[in-house]
Specification:
By secondary structure, this protein is of the alpha+beta class. It has a domain at about 1-85 and about 90-125. It has helices spanning about 1-25, 30-35, 40-45, 95-105, 110-120, 160; strands at about 50-55, 60-65, 70-75, 85-90, 135-140, 145-150, 175, 185. α4 (about 95-105) crosses α5 (about 110-120).
Length: about 190
């Protein structure tokens, strides 16, 4: 029921916005691109690619970029916030497609995590590009959305990096150490 309400809210927001687009000269695609780029600083937006995911885990390029960052909207996925966009490295798109498939094929976060764990154990988990950024922006709307940034460090541990494997000491720390999902948590806004 909560997901239906989120989808209704998102649809209502889009429909209201569409009433004003002709008067300000913004196309639906331009609005989608602007939304997807929201987590990035202005200086990074021009060089970023923006994609739209298809139901078969492929994607369409909405804006070709000159850099390595790619951004997309995730709000339409099950168990996501009403406003939910993410940016990462182009090299991570196979992992994102696999993540999307796991989310669609699962009925809960627990089941999704079990699928991820099984792929990890079987050696079929798509690996993130070491050192790549993952920037997510999510909330009930863009104005109240928070930004969460991590840096992929597959298989990194406290012993291999010097970063603690918990946040009790303050500052950055490794989460999911020793797995393909290991990443550096970056405290932020």
């Amino acid at each position: 029921m909560e997901n239906d309400m989120k989808k209704t809210l998102l649809l209502s927001t889009v429909l209201v916005a569409m009433m004003f687009w002709p008067s300000v000269g913004i196309s639906a695609q331009d609005a989608t691109i602007a939304t997807a780029l929201a987590p990035l600083p202005a200086r990074s937006q021009e060089g970023a690619t923006v994609i739209s995911w298809n139901d078969d885990y492929t994607y369409e390029v909405l804006k070709e970029g000159s850099g390595q960052l790619v951004c997309y909207d995730r709000a339409g996925e099950d168990r996501r916030a009403a406003f939910d966009v993410q940016c990462t490295s182009l090299g991570n798109l196979d992992r994102v497609a696999q993540n999307r498939r796991f989310r669609v094929e699962s009925s809960s976060r627990e089941e999704e995590n079990e699928m991820i764990g099984a792929a990890e154990a079987a050696g079929t988990r798509e690996e993130a590009v070491f050192g790549s950024l993952w920037i997510a922006m999510r909330g009930e709307d863009q104005g109240s959305a928070g930004i969460h940034t991590t840096i992929a460090m597959p298989y990194a541990t406290e012993a291999s990096t010097g970063f603690a494997e918990n946040g009790r000491g303050g500052g950055s720390f490794i989460m999911a150490g020793g797995t393909s999902a290991a990443h550096l948590m970056v405290p932020g806004r």
